[in-house]
Automatic annotation (TrEMBL):
Organism: Aquamicrobium zhengzhouense
Domain 2Fe-2S ferredoxin-type: 18-96
NCBIfam families, per the entry: Fdh-alpha
Sequence ranges assigned to domain 4Fe-4S Mo/W bis-MGD-type in this UniProt record: 253-309
PROSITE patterns per UniProt: 2FE2S_FER_2, 4FE4S_FER_1, 4FE4S_FER_2, 4FE4S_HC3, 4FE4S_MOW_BIS_MGD, MOLYBDOPTERIN_PROK_3
Protein name as it appears in the record: Formate dehydrogenase subunit alpha
Record's keyword annotation contains Chaperone: no
Amino acid sequence: MGLVQEIDYGTPASKSENMVTITVDGFDVTVPEGTSVMRASMEAGISIPKLCATDMVDAFGSCRLCLVEIEGRNGTPSSCTTPVVPGMVVHTQTGRLKDLRRGVMELYISDHPLDCLTCAANGDCELQDMAGAVGLRDVRYGYDGENHVFAKTRGALNDSVANIRYMPKDESNPYFTYDPSKCIVCSRCVRACEEVQGTFALTIEGRGFDSRVSPGMHQNFLESECVSCGACVQACPTGTLVEKSVIEIGVPERSVVTTCAYCGVGCSFKAEMRGDELVRMVPYKDGKANRGHSCVKGRFAYGYASHKERILNPMIREKITDPWREVTWEEAFAHVASEFRRIQYQYGREAIGGITSSRCTNEETYLVQKLIRQGFRNNNVDTCARVCHSPTGYGLGQAFGTSAGTQDFDSVEHSDVVMVIGANPAAAHPVFASRMKKRLRQGAKLIVIDPRRTEMVKSPHVEAEHHLALRPGTNVAVVTALAHVIVTEGLFDEAFIRERCDWSEFEDYAEFVSDPKRSPEEVEKFTGVPAEEIRGAARLYATGGNGAIYYGLGVTEHSQGSTTVMGIANLAMLTGNIGRKGVGVNPLRGQNNVQGSCDMGSFPHEFPGYRHVSTDAVRETFEKLWGVELSDEPGLRIPNMLDAAVEGSFRGIYIQGEDILQSDPDTKHVSAGLAAMECVVVHDLFLNETARFAHVFLPGSTFLEKDGTFTNAERRINRVRKVMAPKNGLADWEVTQKLAQAMGLDWNYAHPSQVMDEIAATTPSFAKVSYEYLEQMGSVQWPCNEAAPEGTPIVHMDGFVRGKGKFIRTEYVPTDEKTGPRFPLLLTTGRILSQYNVGAQTRRTENVVWHDEDVLEIHPHDAEQRGIREGDWVRLTSRAGETTLRAQITDRVAPGVVYTTFHHPDTQANVITTDFSDWATNCPEYKVTAVQVGPSNGPSEWQRDYQELSRQTRRIAPLEAAE
């Protein structure tokens, strides 16, 4: 098994449908109009030497190595910048070209270190390869003159003197190094930063012989605007930019294509290995979600997989005050099975349940919900989507008939207007954000609806036409006001509505939104958004061409989350922006497989494929296969499980790959629920916050150690491939299977592919999916069945899944969480680029260099009123609890609004959040909490108690003591 080879065609593919035929070195080749001569030659199997060209960025034509001769034309044009024309005859190997290329390469080598044997890029260097390709055997120019290679050079009297042109290595970035002496100024890294990533952090500094890549004026990489996405490292053709892991371990020898286990974008990567050691993760160009790009997390933050804090042996304890005792897998499974049987015998069948993981594979999630339904004989199963995107499932299901995004990510390339609501893709979904920003730089318009001035509002070469900085909790009012403008000004698409929706429902909805009390002028009074901004945004979305809406947790994590989702669906239907490229309603999913965990039946009221447990025919399908009678009553949601635990009727839980104590709202309530249970089983990589209340710990496996599939935010089913053996001995699906066997179930899966076969046999939207088919197709988007054998990139093209699109009234109901004299500010929460979710993975990597603690963003006016200065400790207090953290004074938040992230357990931001939740789905209202902020001199009493409890509950007994 070697490295997965990818062909670099030198320039991007043309999307033209007109075909052109040319002749290259006597061979005819037919390519799309607009294709470069270089790419056409590659299509014919003829490789032209190149250094500045790569197919991830536009042609540049600076290296002068790819020269060709074209019959009928003078000179030797660069093949990367020369487009094909019909009948063109190209010669790539002539005596003149050979001499020119050797001369060019000789000049490059004359100012380049000849340390190939000790260079980290040896064997992975395009400069090295091209020197061989052009036949360079001698370099006539030495280092006696000016050079960038040596720190010291010989003077006139042969004394060594400082070389003023030498620049030292920049080792500041934790993941890669920059060696200017090896830079050939091809600009590939600069262009990748601009065209692929869209950060514009790099530039060429100096002129002529003194020109070099620079991350900023007199800045190193760490201090610069660089976001460590790795695009520059990937683009570099020499050893100038190299991963530190390659320097340490060596050039990889084999690779496996797999899928990133961070956010819902679902990037494909080549995991490049040396033996069983992971050298680096390289974005895979054929990955249909990321198209060869990556972010700092997926590209570099994989070190948690081998972190010293990872637990590799099962552990048991009688009481949470006891130290942990390491046991065998067999003892752990027998103990859990015995305890769960005892609890059900003592308290009833409904007394136990489970939580599936949005970080585990589809197959593993399917098995957990199967264990609960078949083994526990109830529907007490839930997932973290409960606390993030459950309103998406409900709202889109009601309006369109299916509870997932309508488009693929490629669709944004066809958008003319992009509306981003309650999401910050630049921080939470950065690879998709790069694609979105590229389209915006090409001329699409942007509308941002967010209380904060996020990175999306203004960044290099991108600025929102409208930023609706609404007061937290008023989403429904603003979205309905947008609809008010579209309806009252006659901007709606009547033909689309008459054809695709119920006209009488539209008339009812139009009457509702036309009420003057829903006008922008009235809404401005309590949302804080100027009426003209709302009107301008509504007109732009309705009349600006293809309009696409992307939204995140700032929409769903509210008491009216489901209502806002339905309001967004109304906007799309009103304007006909549904069912084709460039439009649609797209939830940006937070975790790598939160879409898949929902698809797999992780909700207490639904079987896989979003089919209600009360549906007899669906139940019969699973009863026949599983050999048991299944309950037709929806089970308990996560908040209900915790309530029932406090009441005494719910006593045991199996939690796979979720940290509900840190991620769920009202931490004290979660603590009380977990503390009341008699058998808490945590199945995870680390002793997370929830594990402090666990009685059994089952060590988990990382995405690098298992086979399976993830489903991303665009419904794309991607393969996850085993890169190395599980360090704990078992993949997560095997742990669940052995637990099921201990409970008496006859499970005998030999491989996750067999689990997918069962999913396909029972779930219509997955009917044609198999591992063999995914190998053939690369990936597919569900529904994938006989009606859509190649998957469904865009849904609702010919009609809505539910038949007619449904307009639903969206009455604004203010949240019960009110500000007042005691709690005058509103807290809202979100994510940051370098950290992920509860931080269990990213906090155990070098990403802490960028964000080692959660901070509280507060407006200068609010800070001044309270005597708070930058970096001060502040006490953050709500009706639910209090915590302390450091202040960051910024006008990114409006007066009256404060903001923090939730990545660090030391802060425990959720001890502040209330237990209010979405009316339809119980999704917590994380985004609106009334708080007060005041000076503090350090951690709160609750934080100190929490840290002590953390220390006590993480003790592991020495092996000899355990025996």
